[in-house]
Amino acid sequence: MRANYKLQRLFIDAPLVADAMVETSREQAHYLTHVLRMGEGAEVLLFNGRDGEWLAELAEAGRKAVRLRLTRQARPQTPLPDLVYCFAPLKKGRLDYLVQKAVEMGAGRLQPVITQHTQLARPPMQRLAANVMEAAEQCGILAIPELREPVKLDRLLAEWEPERRLIFCDEDAATNNPMQALSGVKERRLGLLVGPEGGFSDAERAQLRARPFVTAIPLGPRILRADTAAVAALAIIQAAIGDWS
Question: Model pTM?
Answer without folding.
Answer: 0.89
